User: Which sequence fits this backbone?
């Protein structure tokens, strides 16, 4: 079994505005190996729509999406499936 702490990558995109959070999240997700976890923190309200949609398009799995005040936190798992072109 994989240790999620050792297999996860944290990406802090606090303060960035659309479209930067989703673009940087996509780039980081594509760079991960299959099964690796990416945890993204951001403050752009549009990310609550954009990031889950992008994760689905990439064939990855969105494990969680949480809001704590202005801060959004997403936990996703990279897939071995190639992304759509």
Assistant:
């Amino acid at each position: 079994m994989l240790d999620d702490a050792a297999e996860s990558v944290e990406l802090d995109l606090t303060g960035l505005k659309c479209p930067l959070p989703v673009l940087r999240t996509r780039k980081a997700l594509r760079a991960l190996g299959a099964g690796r976890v990416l945890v993204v923190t951001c403050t752009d309200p549009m990310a609550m729509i954009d990031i889950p949609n992008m994760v689905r398009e990439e064939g990855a799995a969105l494990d969680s999406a949480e809001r704590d005040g202005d801060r959004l936190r997403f936990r996703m798992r990279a897939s071995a499936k190639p992304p759509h072109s």
The chain is about 30% helix and 30% strand.
